[in-house]
Amino acid sequence: MSSAECGSNGTLDTNQRWKEIGTDFRHLSTAATVQETLMSLPDSTSPPNDSSATMMDRLVLSYLDIRRAIGLSGLVLPLVLGPGGLLLGIEIQENMSSYYHTPLRDVFVGTLCAIGIFLFCYRGYDRIENWTANIGAVAAIGIALFPLDYGSDPLIQKSFVGYVHTFSGGVFFTTLAFYSLYHFPRDSRREAESHLFERSLAFRASGLTILLITFAMGGYMLLVPQDWKDWLNGYNFLFWAEWIAVWSFASSWLAKGRIIVTEIGVEVLAYSRKMVLQHGLGIKDNP
Predict the structure, then answer these.
(1) Which long-range contacts (CB under 8 A, 24 or more apart) does 67-70 make?
(2) Cβ distance 246 to 77 under 8 Å?
(3) What integer pLDDT is reported at residue 58 of this predicted model?
(4) Crossing angle between the packed helical segments 196-222 and 237-256, to the nearest 10 degrees
(5) pTM summary value
(6) In terms of Cα–Cα distance, which of 126, 97, 118 is closest to 109?
(7) Among 6, 159, 241, 276, which is 20 to 30 Å from 251 by CA?
(8) Roughly what angle, to the nearest 10 degrees, separates helices 237-256 and 226-233?
(9) Residue range 199-218, pLDDT digits in tens
(10) If phi over 0 gives left and psi between -120 and 50 gives alpha, with beta otherwise, what is residue 14?
(11) What CA–CA distance (Å, rounded) separates 79 from 200?
């Protein structure tokens, strides 16, 4: 067989393979399928004006970008509502949801809708992770579009819309806690990330914080006597509790998005753990 024929056959095989890959991509629904399909590409093939490595990089970046967008949205929201509101002459509200009834309504609604859209676009490794993202997306949009009744206790609403808001808030924080406690540590193992122990520790600490804050807010609304509530409201208890929960989920998503600040934090944790182990405290060096 001549070299020309070999080149022709190689081109035909390559083109056929990329046609198959294109068909596969139209049916992709999970990150695992993306990874498996890309890994099946022949080493010697490359798409027109591109390479399989570049294509994989783009897919990885798209997932990292979504994670970072979700994390940054959560990081910025409390800052804009709280300190940003003060600069505009808006007092700290009893809770973040109350900002719907202030000039910062568009910021509150827009940020939560954006988080909802990002979660809806996010695809994980299996159906459970996809459903978690979808439920979180619906909950985030529910918080945004179904406002809390003005000047009301979150558990004592005057309208059905207000109760939908309260329910959506509980579901939203629960799904985000589930991501940090279950999905992210497991996904880090699948992605063979470095310092698994430290990453899992950070994710689970964030998830546990979200759960504790959610339970604390529930206890505040269900169990605390009204006179105590009035005293705590004077210090905007719910607002600060929500701020901690939102930043906990934001830090988890930013860490999963591998931004440089969180990567430095992971390295510091890993180094500290290494120093402790070297001093013979009997801690096992396994994630």
Answers:
(1) 67/122, 67/253, 67/254, 67/256, 67/257, 68/253, 68/254, 68/257, 68/259, 69/114, 69/118, 70/115, 70/118, 70/119, 70/122, 70/250, 70/253
(2) yes
(3) 55
(4) 160
(5) 0.73
(6) 97
(7) 276
(8) 60
(9) 888 899 999 999 999 999 98
(10) alpha
(11) 27
Q: Are 90 and 80 in contact (CB under 8 A)?
A: no
Task: Specify whether the CB–CB gap between 37 and 24 falls below 8 A.
Answer: yes
Q: What single DSSP character describes residue 16?
A: H
Q: Which two tokens stand for residue 224?
A: 């605390």
In DSSP terms, 156 is beta-bridged to 153
22 vs 12: CA distance, rounded Å: 15
The amino acid that residue 155 corresponds to is L
Domain boundaries, the chain: 11-40, 53-278
Burial class (CB in 10 A: 0-12, 13-18, 19+), 50: exposed
The token pair at 124 is 């994980």
The parts of the chain modelled with pLDDT lower than 70 are: 1-61, 280-287
Helix (H, G, I), strand (E, B) or coil at 154: coil
The answer to whether 262 and 115 are in contact (CB under 8 A) is no
Rounded to whole angstroms, how far apart are CA atoms 1 and 268?
Answer: 59
Are 170 and 155 in contact by the 8 Å Cβ rule? The answer is: no
